[in-house]
Write a structure and sequence with these properties.
Shape: extended
Number of helices: 8
Strand content: 15-25%
Oligomer: single chain
Number of domains: 2
Largest sheet: 2 strands, antiparallel
Helix content: 40-55%
Length: 231
């Protein structure tokens, strides 16, 4: 059985005159290294194809006047992401005042699928039990471990199309949290300067701060020492 795995970009979906659909995939020069012969053998053959986008698209609601997101997030020292309550809304809540209505706009953003799924696998992503009737994080973990949507859907007694839709909705829901978590994670991986390196930097700064007059005096003394030695 011939098999090839690669990550192309979907460029077009054409409707042909005979009613058939033509899907055009594009891949970089090195993306098919060692696989062209295998693909050539499949020309004209019926194949099984499952395509999954490698990016997660989601919308961010912005204040139309300030162009700032209505929701912002913070991460604690354990990597738990939580929403930051805007100062104005907190004051309104404390005073029992109704929330001020602001004009908003939706901005489309995207994030790598691998980042979102890594966040989900960390068990730090919220489950949103009130919005999703199933344990979607567990579904995603099982799918990434090699199980099929069909198998999982059969166990849950729902269609595979439904489970895919729920997974897409959940990923889009946690995407902005995953982005904040990735920033925190990357900051934890940054190397910390050792005390020796810090002292070295300070010493270099001190040396560079020596006045020119002192440096000139040192140079003159050095020249005089050389002449004395030569004599």
């Amino acid at each position: 059985m011939s098999y090839a795995e690669f990550n192309p970009v979907v460029k077009k979906v054409n409707l042909k005159a005979d009613g058939k659909k033509e899907i055009v995939l594009e891949i970089g020069d090195s993306g098919l290294d060692g696989k062209l012969d295998t693909l050539a053998k499949m020309i004209g053959c019926m194949v099984q194809c499952a395509i999954e986008s490698q990016v997660v698209n989601y919308n961010v609601t912005l204040n139309a006047q300030t162009n700032e997101p209505l929701k912002t997030y913070k991460v604690d020292n354990k990597g738990v992401v939580s929403e930051v309550e805007p100062a104005a809304e907190q004051i309104e809540a404390d005073l029992g005042l109704p929330k001020e209505k602001v004009k908003t706009v939706e901005e489309k953003q995207e994030i790598e699928l691998s980042v979102v799924d890594e966040f989900i696998s960390s068990s730090l992503a919220p489950q949103f039990e009130t919005e999703f009737a199933y344990d979607i994080p567990q579904v995603i973990k099982r799918k990434n471990d090699g199980e099929t949507y069909m198998k999982i859907a059969n166990e849950l007694n729902i269609s595979s199309g439904t489970i895919v839709d729920l997974v897409d909705q959940y990923r889009a829901k946690v995407a902005p949290l995953a982005e904040k978590w990735k920033e925190w994670k990357d900051s934890q991986d940054e190397p910390v300067e050792s005390p020796t390196e810090v002292k070295k930097e300070v010493k270099e700064e001190v040396d560079l701060s020596v006045p020119e007059e002192v440096l000139e005096e040192k140079i003159e003394e050095s020249d005089e020492d050389k002449e004395s030695g030569a004599a």
